[in-house]
Write the C-alpha cells for this entry.
Amino acid sequence: MKDSNRDDALDPLLRQAAKSLDGERPSSACFEPDELAAWADGSLSSSDVTRLEAHAAACARCRALMVAMVQTAPAADESRPAWWKAPVLRWAAPLAAAAAATVIWVNVQRGDPLEQQAPADAAPRVEEQDRSVREPVPPPTAKADATAKQQAAAAPPDAPARRESFEAKREETRQQVAAKPDAVPPGTVPPPSAQAAQERVFDQTARPTLSAIQQVLLASPDGSVRWRVRPGVAERSTDAGASWEAVALPVQVPLTVGQCVTAEACWLAGAAGTILRTTDGRTWTAVTSPSPADIRSLSASSPLDATVTTSDGRTFVTTDGGKTWR
Amino acid sequence: MTGRRRLPERLVADLAHRARADRWHLSAVAFEAALVRSAERGLGDRAAEDAEVERYLSGLHLEDLALACACAEGSEAAWDHFVSEFRPVLYRAASALDPSGDRELADSLYGDLFGTRERDGERQPLFTYFQGRSSLATWLRAVLAQRHVDRMRAARRVEPLPEEHTAQALRARPDELDPDRARLLPLAWAALRMAIAALAPRDRLRFACYYADGMTLAETGRVTGEHEATVSRQLTKTRAGIRTQVERHLKDEDGLDDLRARRAIDFLVEDAGAHDLAEWMGRKKTTDDRSTAEDT
C-alpha cells in the first residue's frame, strides 16, 4: 500500500483514536461560563488560550461548548474573533493608523499585500502574526473608522483580487512614467520628489527586503516610549515616533514578539528560544531561555514577571526576570 | 491575589464612573466587591501589583459588570433594562442551539439569573458569577451553552448501549489467529494514541474537532479561528506527522524493524474498519446469517 493511500485509509482509524482520547467525565479544568465567554470574546491572554485549547483537545464536553458558542454568535459576529481581536490588538488602536500606513506602503511596493506584514498594532505589545497558524477571516462588522491595517488584513479570498489590482496599477503607472519625456529609465531610482516617491513605490528594484518588512512595534503602557525592532536592529523613540535612536541588540536573530511593561522595561523574544530584556530602556540583555524552540508569544506584567509560549506548545513562566523558568 | 483586598477609593470611583453605575444607584461597596471578585478570579492567587490590578480592572466590560451587579442586588431598574436588552439575545441563542425547541431553555435561565434558588436561606443570583472579562451578552450565551450541552450529554447517557458491548460483538475476528497481528496491533494502537496526545494544543484541538466530533473544515475553523483552507492544510500536515510519529515510535521505542513497523500500521488500518462493529455486524448478518447463528 502506498503512503498517500495509507493516509486516506487512516481517516476512520484517526476518528476512533481521537474519540478514545477524550476524557470520560467533566473535570475541574472544564470551562466555566466566564472563561468560555472570555475565549469567545477574544479577551483571554495567549497563554490562557493555549491552556484552554489543550484542555478542549481532550474534552468532548468543552469542545461542544466551544461549538455552541460559535453556533450562538450573533449575525454581526458570526465567527469567533480571529487574531485581530486578541487583547493585544484591541489595546493597540492608538498606534494602528500610523503603522497601517507603513504596512500599506510596504506591501504596495511588494505587490503582495497579504504576504509578510509588519505588525501594525502596538501599545502595549505586538506579536507578529504567524499566518501559517492563524488565517484571518473577514471582520464581522465594518466600522466607519476601520483602520487600513484591518482592511489590508482582510480574508484570503480577497487576496487574489487585491493582488491583481496592485499588479494592474503598477503596470499602468509604469506605462504613464514611460510615456513622459523625462521619464526615469526603468530599473533606476528616481530623484527624491513627491512624484518620484510615488513612482518608486512601483519600482521593482526598490522592493524592501523581507527583514525590513518584519518588524515588531512596542510601546510603553503610557505611550511615552516606543520601540521598533527588526532582526539585529532596535530603535527607540521618546517623541511619539518623530525620531528614533538606535539601540544595540546582543543577538542577531529574528525577534517576533515583545511587550513593554514600563517606559524603561521591555521584553523581546523570538527565534531559537531567544529572550531579551531591558530594564533601563538602553541596554538589552539575553536572559536564560527555557527552551531552544521558537518563542511564539510573550506576555509580561512587570520587569520580573513574564510568560512565554514556544512553537511546540509549551508555556513557561518566570517571576525573577528570566533567571529561572517553570 | 489572596484573601479579600480593598481597592483604592480613587480607582473604584473612577471605574464606577466609567461603568455608569449611578444609573442603577449601585452602591460603591457592592461594585467594589464585584471588582474584587473579578480580580481574584482573573489574576489568580498570586500577589499582583496594584498597577497590574488596575490594568486588569480597566480592561473589564465595566458597564455590563455594573448592570449585572445591580441586578444581583435586586435593582428593579437594572432588571427591567436587562430584560428589555438581553432577552432577545437569550432567545436568539436558544433558537440557534435548538431550532426545534421552545424557549424553555432561555426562560429557565431567568429564574437562576435573578436568584430564585436559595442556599442557606440566601438568594444566590447567577449574576454574581459574571466577572466582566467578556461582554454580558457573550457570558449569557456561555451559560446557555453550558446548560444545553450538559442536558444533551445527560440525555445521551440514558440511551441503550450499542451492540459492540454485547458478547457477540466482542468475539474475536477469525483472522486474529495471526500471532503477528495479536502482538503488533496493540503496539500500533499505543503508538497512535501517544502520537495524537503529543500534538501541540492547537493541532490537537483541530484534530479532535474534525475527527472526534465530525465537524466540517469550516466548522472546525470557526472554533480554532482559522480559515477553512488553513484547517485543511494543517490537518493534512498533522495526519502525515502522526503517521511518521507512529512509525518512529514503533521502530525506536518498540524495536520493530521496517517491515514489522509497516505491518503493524497495516494491521491498524485494517482494524479501523472493524472497530465500527455495528456496521461490521450488519454486514455479517446480511451476508452470512448462518455463521452468526453458529457464533451464539
The two ends of chain A are 45 Å apart (CA to CA). The first strand of chain A starts at residue 125 and ends at 127. Chain A touches chain B through 70 residues (CB under 8 Å). Chain A has a mean pLDDT of 68.
